[in-house]
Amino acid sequence: MSQNRSSNGGGLGFFSFTKVFVIFVLIVVACGFFELVYTVNASMVGVVLSGGKISSVSQPGMHFKLPFYQTVKFIDLKTNSSTVKTEAYTFDQQSATLRVNVIWNFVGTRAEDIYVQYKGDEKYINDYVIFPKLIDCAKTIFGQYNAEKVIQKRAEFVTLLNSQFKEMMKEFPVVIHSIQVEDISFSKVYETSVENAMKARAEVEKAKAELERVQLESQQKVKIAEAESEAVKKRADAQAYAILKTEEANAAAIKLRGEALRENGEIVKLTVAEKWDGKLPVTMVPGSSLPFIDVKSK
Prior knowledge:
Blueprint: H1 2-36, E1 37-40, E2 44-50, E3 53-58, E4 61-64, E5 70-76, E6 80-89, E7 95-106, H2 111-118, H3 122-142, H4 147-152, H5 154-168, E8 174-186, H6 188-263, H7 266-275
Antiparallel strand pairs: 1-4, 2-3, 2-5, 6-7, 7-8
Helix pairs in contact: 3-5
């Protein structure tokens, strides 16, 4: 009886060992399979290391590698948006705080350089390459403007910053898409002085506009008065001309009438006869003749 129990116990132990061994082998095979196959996502590239050295660069998709000998380091090529703040001075020594945003991504074709120089770390290249150079570039360009001009020509400042910083970053394995100056904040003292200057300028412009308005109204009144004076003068000239012409006409008529009377004395008699009412005078001067009676001896 004791021998049977012993033999059964030994068989059960062997079975348990075999089961554990099989499970272990399956786990090893599964791990080997997972070590054999790897996938590179669409927004990444994979740097393959063989024994710690770069042997190739894998593009998006499924790939194979030698388990436990080859490893893959993934580099994300997605677009990054980062913002940095810095103090800067204008050409006229006005202090301002700039908040600048930069949008960039790694260049996939330079994956080996990215891994060797920056270990494919976005934060590393952001903090130690992009931000320091962006700050230096922004300060240099900002210092070329007076405080008032940089506000008035902000678009020009941003355009210049974009072009110069992109040129500066050409040697690095990144693409700079755009730079935006999110904010330019001057000191409260300066902002107050600018506000007061703007108010004073506005008052001056208002006074100029009022003066121009008064001058315009005065000019209009002068023109109206000149026009009225000219009209009066023209009316007077017209009246004088009419009177002159009337007098000339009357004088001409009198002259013609006189000439006619001198040439023909009978017209006088005819004119008197035309005006006679047919009545003889009641009283007569002694020795005078009757009107219209001319007795001539033949």
